[in-house]
Amino acid sequence: MLGFTRYLLPVFLLFSAGSAVSQTLNQPQGAVILEISGQVAVTNTEGAAQFDLEMIEALDQLVIDVETPWHEGPQQFSGPRIVDLMAAAAASGSELRFVAINDYAANMPWDDIEAHDVILASRHNGDTMSVRDKGPLFVIYPFNENPELRNEVYYGRSVWQVKAIQVLP
Ligand SMILES: Nc1nc2c(c(=O)[nH]1)N[C@H]1C(S)=C(S)[C@@H](COP(=O)(O)O)O[C@H]1N2
Ligand SMILES: [Mo]
Is 125 a member of any domain? Predict the structure, then answer.
């Protein structure tokens, strides 16, 4: 037992740390539309993980059919689950702060991204979104499957024109 803690445990920790840093993130080739900073273990710039549209769309995409307070009639949004986006940056924390281009910001408890398939949508009805159309990235909760989310708390966390996510302890 003493042998394990004194000799093998350090070796074990060395290898587990090694596997964590072996995960990498490409350099964005196109315009950077999202920066994830704070508690991220995988970075491609000083202290942050930056993404272009192609990198975001290379992640597993979820399509959500939804009615929102901001649109007339049924809509379709697609993008990665935010929990998968966090995994791509090896992020962990208790809160996510979404910052929009107009500097509106809202905090989301980490629990939301595990309890619900909340996505960072890059497409609305199949098309990318201009800033005028609340793009390029829009936090979308599955309001149709989870009608209990239809209230001001979750509407306030439905940040559009997202440019950055800060992962808070
Ligand atoms: N980028 C951005 N997203 C935002 C907001 C904002 O001002 N800017 N307001 C939030 C809040 S507090 C709510 S309640 C809803 C407001 O939607 P409404 O302006 O259509 O009422 O969007 C949320 N998302
Ligand atoms: Mo709000």
Answer: yes
> What is the count of structural domains for the chain?
1
* Residue listed under structure tokens 């970075």: 43
41-81: pLDDT as tens digits: 999 999 999 999 999 999 999 999 999 999 999 999 999 99
User: Ligand 1 pocket, 152 CB below 6 A?
Assistant: yes
User: Mean pLDDT of all residues in the chain?
Assistant: 92
CATH of residue 54: 3.90.420.10
81-94 confidence digits (pLDDT tens)? 999 999 999 999 99
Is residue 21 one of the residues assigned to a domain? Answer: no
Strand partners for 45:
48
- The pick from 159, 163, 165 for probing ligand 1's pocket by mutation, whose C-beta has the most ligand atoms within 8 angstroms, reads 159
Residue 7 forms part of a structural domain: yes
User: In this structure, are strands 34-38 and 162-168 parallel, antiparallel, or unpaired?
Assistant: parallel
Token pair recorded at residue 62: 């979820």
User: Which pLDDT score is estimated for 18?
Assistant: 44
User: How remote is the CA of residue 43 from the centroid of ligand 1, in Å?
Assistant: 30
**Ligand 2 midpoint to CA 9 (Å):** 49
Which residues span the domain enclosing 91? 2-16+32-168
Residue with tokens 């098309």: 127
